[in-house]
Amino acid sequence: MKEYQHLIIGILFGLALLNLWYLCGIAIEEKILPIHYDYLIKAVTIIISTVIGAFLAFTFNNRLENKKSKKLNEEQIDREVAVLNRAIFNLSRAIRSLGHIKSHIDQHDTELSKALKMHVNRNFVRDISINIEYASGELRLV
């Protein structure tokens, strides 16, 4: 029974409000309240409901725009992270290539030995590009 206590109180409160509204409708007649007060009350009610409706519509639209801009911002950040991850990968490949070349150079003791006995090696892999350009608010590899 305690589970439904708030439900029963809500139903009783709603019925009490309905009864109050009915009794107020009977009590207010043209004799007690002039007709121009009725027009004034209707005008105020219409103005207040219009203002509340416009405010709620503006708030809802603003919330939708914020969600949309947040999603676009997240996509922009994801693209920038992908570009930077690729740049890091390309830099690590270049560093590894340089380390490989250095290990070949370190095998020889003297400059004459390096000049006469060392094989010709490519310095970098051809498809490595590490230039990053920041133009018009977005990162991209060049």
UniProtKB/TrEMBL annotation:
Entry keyword set: Membrane, Transmembrane, Transmembrane helix
Protein name: Uncharacterized protein
Organism: Shewanella frigidimarina
Transmembrane portions of the chain: 7-28, 40-60
Superkingdom, taxonomy of origin: Bacteria
